[in-house]
Protein: MotA/TolQ/ExbB proton channel family protein
Organism: Flavobacterium ardleyense
Amino acid sequence: MKRLFSILAITGLMTFGSVQAQDSTAVTATEQVEEVAASDDVVAISTDDVAKEEVTFTQAIKKRFIEGGPAFMGIVLLCLILGLAIAIERIIYLNLSTTNTKKLVNDVESALNSGGVDAAKEVARNTTGPVASIFYQGLDRYSHGLESAEKSVVAYGGVQMGQLEKNVSWISLFIALAPMLGFMGTVIGMIEAFDQIQSAGSMEPSLVAGGIKVALLTTVFGLIVAIILQIFYNYITAKIDSIVNDMEDASISLIDILSDYSKK
């Protein structure tokens, strides 16, 4: 539930931020038009020319988005917002899960040699991250034997891996869904364009150009959403692989440390 609330909160903040940015852009453009109209030196410049000069990238994207139609463009935008919300939540979680494994291994080994298993467990308990959690589980089961500790490390490592990969499949779903929705919007737009040709009884470029342009906009936005989410997805998977490799190396080091400790 906490992760669900965090995803919803991030989505709300992103939506609110985009609305605020659009409002501030609109206010700035209005103020600049008023200043130009009030200036005696540029009386000859028309309001339409100023408006054309003040069109920003965000306004152009917004205009194209509206031209694409709310039906499919709204769904594509929802895929982007949800995908980014999940990606940001995963990036924050993975960064918080990153641990200096070499330092942790050295601290656990020193505590184990000086204060025994309880001291090593205390070090693992006071350290954040999945590697420390795996260490704590292995040390906690050491009283049942080295083999039991090793099985606990392997089993809990799988649990931690599942936590790292949680909700990542939703990002891949949105990556596949966004361009598919765009293609569907394009196909439906082309069908509507041919319906207009059939109704008019003639093939006039001006008659179908607008419909074809609108149809292609859905594909463009779908591909843009997929590209953005794919970048985040690759970063997240690379981060997960790095943490998993650290978990495996640290787990092997822990078993070796416990094996040496049991021989003393």
Q: What stands out?
A: The chain has nine helices and no strands. The chain has two domains: 1-55, 70-264. Confidence is low (pLDDT under 50) at residues 18-53. Residues 1-55 form one domain.
